[in-house]
Amino acid sequence: MLSVFGDESADETQQRVFAVGGVIGDEDRWNWLEERWIICNEGAPFHATDCDSDSGNYKGREHSANKNLYKSLTILLAESGLGGWGFAIDLQAQRKVFPESPDIAYYKCFLEVLLAMRNCAAHNKETVKYTFDLRRKDKYNAGYLYSRLVEQKDWKDHIFTKIAFESSRENNRLQVADLFVRETMKALDNHFGPVKRPPRKSFETLVETGRFHVEAIGEEWFQDLKRQMDFDKELGPPEEYRAWLKENDFSHNTLSMFRYIEWRNREK
Amino acid sequence: MKVDSEFATFEKMASGLMAIPHATIKAKLEAEKEAKRVTKKGKATRRRGA
Q1: What would the 3-class secondary structure string for chain A be?
Q2: SS3 assignment, position B16
Q3: Which residues are within 8 A (CB) of A14 and not within 5 positions of it... i.e. 6 or more apart?
Q4: Residue-level pLDDT at B40
Q5: Which chain A residues are within 8 Å of B33, Cβ to Cβ?
Q6: Burial B8-40 (b: 16+ CB within 10 A, else e)
Q7: pLDDT band at residue A24, thresholds of 50, 70 and 90?
Q8: What are the distances in angstroms from CA A248 to CA A178, A242, A259, A263, A266?
Q9: pLDDT the model gives residue A230
Q10: What whole-number distance in Å separates Cα of residue B26 and Cα of residue A192?
Q11: Do B7 and A238 touch (CB under 8 A)?
């Protein structure tokens, strides 16, 4: 069985880039890395953004010590034999093409990471178990989406029946995912953000292994999606949704909207 | 009504952004780019030959 640990990351304004990333591998590789990860961090929980910006628990430490720690952990991850897949969205491009878009960047990135990891497991004739960082706001909705995937034919043979959500403070492997997804997010932000920067050394170290991949979607991608959507099937009237909410005694929220769409697709 | 407008935009995005896998659009865009590249190359070859 393979295990995936996943996390999300956004730029400091949460307006430019959003990313979700997962790190995948078998138990031997995870154990190899975890043992060394704990020693490097002297038992303290690692947080990539804080370490990279001398803040939080890393405030007051020598800047060079924080940089060296980040570098050492990146090299460890590169040498671990684990792989990673990250998916990032250019939020400004999304807003430009779909100005009224609801905030579903997390779910899009989440589904794409699940799909990439499922494909990896299928390719290796394995089953994959997912553990994601506990993100209170989206935990239930993400759990719901996962529960729908488990029932699908192409998925159920390769994914574990349940997804776990845990706190990265208590899970070293989620801290590994935190580092990788920060690199995913920074790679896109350095490219599309207000200050253009060359790729980070840490990002290059991971990508050069050939086992870490990042996909990003920008304006061209959203424009193409919009063209496809213009020819999409006719959508249901909102009044039906309101009647369905009333009938089932549900409140209007993201989970209800996911449920309703799924229910309607099943009914048709 | 807020519920109506929120649901309408959510439904639209869910049917497109969520339901269409990234790989589908990526493959299409790459195929378009490749086709443009081949056409451009063909035109340049014809110009040189003329």
Answers
A1: CEEEEEEEEECCCCCCEEEEEEEEECHHHHHHHHHHHHHHCCCCCCCHHHHHCCCHHHCCCCHHHHHHHHHHHHHHHHHCCCEEEEEEEEHHHHHHHCCCCCCCHHHHHHHHHHHHHHHHHHHCCCCEEEEEECCHHHHHHHHHHHHHHHCCHHHHCCECCCCEEECCCCCHHHHHHHHHHHHHHHHHHHHHCCCCCCCCHHHHHHHCCCCEEEEEECHHHHHHHHHHHHCCCCCCCHHHHHHHHHHHCCCCCHHHHHHHHHHHHHHC
A2: helix
A3: none
A4: 77
A5: none
A6: bbbbbbbbbbbeeebeebeeeeeeeeeeeeeee
A7: very high
A8: 39, 10, 11, 12, 16
A9: 58
A10: 18
A11: yes
Q: Which residue has the higher pLDDT, A132 or A195?
A: A132
State in Å, rounded, how far the first CA of chain A is from the last one: 36
A149 and B CB contact within 8 Å? no
The DSSP symbol for B50 reads -
CA distance A40 to A46: 10
Tokens of A69: 């720690």
The conformation of residue B17, written as its DSSP 8-state character, comes to I
For A43-70, write each residue's pLDDT tens digit.
999 999 999 999 999 999 999 999 999 9
Residues of A in contact with B31 (CB under 8 A): none
**B13 contacts in chain A (CB < 8 Å):** 98, 101-102, 104
| Interface check B38 vs A, CB under 8 A | no
Fold of the CATH domain A2-229: Nucleotidyltransferase; domain 5 (3.30.420)
Percent of chain A whose pLDDT exceeds 90: 68
How, if at all, do strands A128-133 and A2-10 pair? parallel
d(CA A101, CA B13): 7
Question: Which among A185, A171, A176, A199 is positioned nearest to A75, based on CA atoms?
Answer: A176
Domain boundaries, chain A: 2-229, 230-268
